[in-house]
Write a structure and sequence with these properties.
This protein has 244 residues and is α+β, with helices and mostly antiparallel strands. The chain is built from seven helices and eleven strands.
Length: 244
């Protein structure tokens, strides 16, 4: 297993409020990746994303090993996001400066036998293989809810004025609900995590091409981020790639 990551504030932002994590322990048989996209103002968004990813990854690191079962890994990641939510929420109450802050969180933990993906918000996880690209996670967003109710088409959602409104976040309430997925990832296949700064600019098919045919895997995240930046990305842009 190998992991790579790249993040950029983008051409329109003065600060990068995304945070990412990419750790691979091939000798121990596991890898952990995560992306957070903070929100809540010039200072607090950065605090929320950094705090959430720190707390979440510390808990998972402490409990994961190459022999962990799927159910135990899922529960470990659920514990991680609950603790991250507690930490961010408590800090949001500690100062007016941090009031209302929160963050998305998407994470993937992979061993030789199991893969678990968790998300809160609209940062995404994709499964990429020779068979194509598929989105593992479902966005927790107003747009996704409207599409699900048949009130908006996927094509209309690209221009919808409320497309950046999310319906779940880490740290904005006392409790958090995360979605957990257990995709089957075979040797040689990929999981890509990214913030909406990438998916709002770069299409799924472009992502697929860059991962499989764009060049060396170790440069893939930089290429994807640079494409978004070169197109004038209005937000921070982050990509984390895991190859099993």
């Amino acid at each position: 297993m190998k992991v790579w990551a790249c993040t950029d504030k983008g051409p329109k932002r003065t600060q990068n409020q995304d945070a990412c994590h990419a750790v691979c322990k091939p000798d121990e048989g596991w890898a952990l990746t995560a992306v957070c996209d903070g929100m809540g103002g010039a200072k607090s968004g950065n605090v929320a994303s950094s705090l959430a990813i720190s707390v979440f990854t510390e808990i998972v690191h402490d409990g994961v090993d190459g022999k962990i079962s799927r159910s135990m890994l899922s529960e470990l990641m659920r514990m991680g996001v609950v603790s991250a939510n507690d930490a961010v929420y408590e800090m949001s109450l500690s100062s007016r400066e941090f009031s209302g802050m929160g963050t998305t969180l998407v994470a993937a933990a992979v061993t030789e036998d199991v893969s678990v993906v968790l998300n809160v918000g609209d940062s995404r996880a994709y499964h990429i293989s020779d068979a194509g690209i598929s989105q593992i996670t479902t966005d927790h967003s107003l747009v996704e809810e409207l599409i699900g109710r048949g009130q908006l088409t996927r094509e209309e959602s690209v221009r919808y004025p409320g497309r950046n409104l999310i319906t779940r976040a880490v740290g904005t309430a006392e409790q958090v609900t995360a979605d957990i997925f257990c995709p089957q990832i075979r040797k040689g296949e990929y999981i890509l995590l990214c913030s909406d700064g990438l998916t709002g600019i770069v299409s799924d098919q472009e992502i697929l091409f860059e991962v499989l045919h764009g060049g060396d895997s170790e440069d893939c995240c930089q290429r994807l981020v640079q494409i978004a930046v070169s197109r004038g990305a209005p937000d921070n842009v982050t990509a984390v790639l895991l190859k099993k």
